[in-house]
Amino acid sequence: MRDASICTGYCPSPRGVFCAPDRLLAEGVAVTYAQFLLFFLLVPLGVLVLVLRRKLLDWRYLTLAGVLALVALAYMAPWDHTAAVWKLWAWAPGQTWGVRWWAVPPEEYLFCVLEALLGVTLTYAAMLWRGRIIQHGNECERDGQQPREERQL
Amino acid sequence: MTHWPYLPFLLVWALPVLAIQWIAGGRYLWRERHTWPFVTLGLGVWFTVADAIAINAHIWSFDRSSLIGIWLGPVPLEEVLFYLLTAAMCVQGFVTLYGGWGDRRTVVAEWRSRIARLHKWQGKAIKKRIASGDVPPQQGAYPAERADV
To answer: How far is A134 from chain B (nearest CA, A)?
Structure first.
């Protein structure tokens, strides 16, 4: 158990994050926010990209993924900043890159964009898997046929 | 500045977006009801586990006095809700827009028809007001309603 008295600043919880860096190192805490992003967001996203590969070349998906990631970022930034100013939550200075844009570390913005991309891509994959999206394109062009939507007209 | 607790701050931020998505694209969300709830739930569980690890690694921490005090292990209930609601916003947003994109001609036609109906209704309301003597005819909003045109 860590002694709360060793904390050097604002300590919102018994597991306060604003403890002296030497103490954190002594406890073997090495996970940074960037590593968290890598493991929990970039790796699953990479796996999805590898699985879907050419199926991702769908303009509707690509456009919506980009637009939704930007909208998520724009909607989340002022909210997160306000929460950080109110000290609802705080990030460990030693485990983030140290920069703050507004009161928020850049990793948090990355988290928002990557979460939106992961959510959108996973939904797209689920819709493909369940046959809710019927892809057409290359095979139709190769066979000299009209894409499905136009054939139905 | 007034300091809100986490839970109302989260709900006031997230629920209007979900409501707008259901009003605008309820038909697509209903059509895909066997897809998106599972994706949202899966993402919620994944991020809750990730959050537990991040909290244990002290990457971030919370002001305990702003929480309602229900915890799932190291994770406050508000955080579980945060991941479920943000995942729902992304996933429902995609389902709505993906469906709407395919139906864009129908959607545009529907909105045009709604605006036309509103226009007609406004015209009727103005005629009624003129008939009741509330508005002198020359002050009607539409040229067609004006006695001098």
So the answer is: 12
Nearest to A95 among B58, B74, B101 (CB): B58
CA angle B36, B41, B43 (to 5 degrees): 95
Q: Look at residue A13 in the predicted model and tell me its pLDDT.
A: 41
- Take residue B138 and report the two structure tokens written for it: 């020359």
User: What distance in Å separates the CA atoms of residue B71 and residue B77, rounded to the nearest whole number?
Assistant: 6
Phi–psi pair at B75, nearest 5 degrees: -100, 125
* Cα end-to-end span (Å), chain B: 56
Q: Can you read off the two tokens belonging to residue A90?
A: 């705080």
- Give the nearest partner residue to A79 out of B13, B47, B101, using CB atoms: B13
Token pair 């590969």: residue: A53
Cα three-residue angle A126-A130-A136, rounded to 5 degrees: 95
The more confidently predicted of residues A26 and A57 is A57
ipTM score of the complex?
Answer: 0.75
Residue A55 in contact with partner chain B when CB distance is under 8 A: no
**Dihedral sign for Cα atoms in the order B116, B117, B121, B122:** negative
Which residue in A31, A75, A88 is closest to B66 by CB distance? A88
Interface check A119 vs B, CB under 8 A:
yes
For residue range B107-143, list pLDDT tens digits in order: 888 888 888 888 888 888 878 887 887 766 555 556 6
- State whether A68 and B90 contact (CB < 8 Å): yes
Q: How many other β-carbons are positioned within 10 Å of the β-carbon of residue B41? A: 14
Please answer whether residues A14 and A4 qualify as being in contact, where contact means their C-beta atoms are separated by less than 8 angstroms.
yes
